[in-house]
Amino acid sequence: MPAQRTSLAGLPSGRWLLAIVTTLVLAGCVAPKPGADLPPFGDSVHHTKALQTYEPGDEVPPLHGDKAVEAMQGYRQPVGGSGQAPSSSMP
Question: Is 33 in a helix, a strand, or coil?
Fold first, then answer.
């Protein structure tokens, strides 16, 4: 019977390698998940997106003409609210 090569711990070379690989595989399975201990940040973002997303069957609130005209006039008014467009100082 041929003599087997032994490694550091007195185990045959193949078993030593198998022990290292098994240890690494098991350590990878037990490792904690990154961020598992953090609070669930981002849930508020998902909730807000869900509120703003139209789903088929949802009721669509109507936009009456008066309300639309008022909104457009508000956007067209200058920031100061004076009713005049800002003048340019360039020639």
Answer: coil
Give the confidence band of 69 by pLDDT, cuts at 50, 70, 90. confident
CA 24, distance to chain mean position in Å, is 30
Q: At 57, list the tokens.
A: 């069957």
Q: Please report, for the chain, the start and end positions of each structural domain, with discontinuous segments joined by +.
A: 1-30
CA angle 41, 43, 49 (to 5 degrees): 130
- The pTM assigned to this predicted structure is 0.26
Residue 8 makes CB contacts below 8 A (sequence gap 6+) with: 16
Which one-letter DSSP state was computed for residue 6? B
